[in-house]
Write a structure and sequence with these properties.
Elements lengths: L7 E4 L2 E8 L3 E15 L4 E7 L3 E6 L2 E5 L3 H15 L5 E6 L4 H6 L7 E5 L3 H10 L1 H4 L7 E4 L3 H6 L5 E7 L13 H10 E10 L7 H14 L2 E8 L7 E8 L21 H6 L5 H6 L8
Helix pairs in contact: 6-7
Length: about 290
């Protein structure tokens, strides 16, 4: 038997990946094979092939994205802010080592610069080679790969970006500080005067404290802020949340000149409806109209 990490187990000659979620829930995936497995200085990086989800990126035993549904998350975290901004030129992506968000951003001809700051170069290398359903083996001259700590990177930036996308992993370990107020404050400073910030804000089912905390931080910093959702089957609970804030124009998708892009999930109807929240979320993080 191969020397697999602890989250991979062989039962009756079948490989299973078991993910621990918040110490309350275990999710097991039947695998066809392990394609890539290597320890970086930061974390353990794996690409595996599963029966239901196709190829998957797994970091320290936690599934990050899959060939089957990765496009949903990447389209929603990227196209919502890029549609809301009237004329985006410069984009910063923090995290996003699977290259999916950067790949979606390249669909906008108006963009001249896409800085992708990822702390772990091995993630990018593995995904470009072994997870091209998500990465598209991204090669676009506008994309600058910067392998460094996103927290330190943004501290040096001011009035630099039209849109910032924080595509982080769960708020544990290296990504924990990416959910703190000080970090969002630095991102606010790095945005231009009409800039937009978006981040993934975890499960509205299982992690309501993070959803609420993120929204509270944004409300202290931005002219207008809202929460929106998408259904991503890979992620525990299925429903996933994103928090968005703007320094300039109010968040009014119905009044935006919609830019047509080639997508599999996102469209104008999804764009306008994703801010309509189920009632339990409305009570937690109400999306007030800008006039109220």
């Amino acid at each position: 038997m191969a020397n697999y990490p602890s989250w991979i187990e062989e039962k009756d000659e079948v490989l299973w990946l078991t993910e621990d979620d918040r110490e309350h829930l275990q999710i097991s995936y039947r695998l066809k094979k392990v394609i890539f497995s290597e320890q970086s200085p930061i974390q353990h990086v794996m690409i595996v092939e599963s029966d239901d989800f196709g190829r998957m990126l797994v970091l320290d035993g936690v599934v990050q994205t899959t060939a089957m549904d990765g496009y949903i998350y990447n389209e929603m975290i990227t196209h919502v802010p890029l549609q809301l901004h009237p004329n985006p030129k410069n984009v910063l992506i923090i995290g996003g080592g699977d290259c999916g968000a950067a790949r979606e951003a390249t669909k906008y001809p108006s963009l001249t610069q896409i800085d992708m700051v990822e702390i772990d170069e091995l993630v990018v290398k593995a995904c470009k080679e072994h997870l091209q359903e998500v990465s598209g083996n991204l090669h676009d001259p506008r994309v600058n790969f910067i392998f460094t700590d996103g927290l330190a990177f943004v501290q040096e930036k001011e009035d630099a970006y039209d849109v910032i996308i924080v595509d982080s992993s769960d708020p544990v370990g290296p990504a924990e500080a990416l959910f703190e107020y000080d970090f969002y404050q630095n991102l606010h400073k790095a945005l231009k005067k009409d800039g937009i910030l978006v981040c993934q804000s975890q499960s509205p089912i299982f992690q309501q404290a993070i959803v609420k905390q993120t929204r509270t931080h944004f409300e202290k910093l931005f002219t207008d802020t809202k929460t929106y959702t998408a259904i991503v089957p890979t992620y525990p609970g299925g429903m996933w949340s994103f928090t968005i804030g703007t320094k300039g124009n109010p968040i009014e998708p119905g009044r935006v000149h919609f830019k047509n892009v080639d997508t599999n999930y996102f469209n104008q109807g999804v764009f306008e409806s994703c801010f309509t929240l189920p009632e339990f979320l409305n009570k937690l993080v109400p999306n007030h109209s800008h006039e109220s």
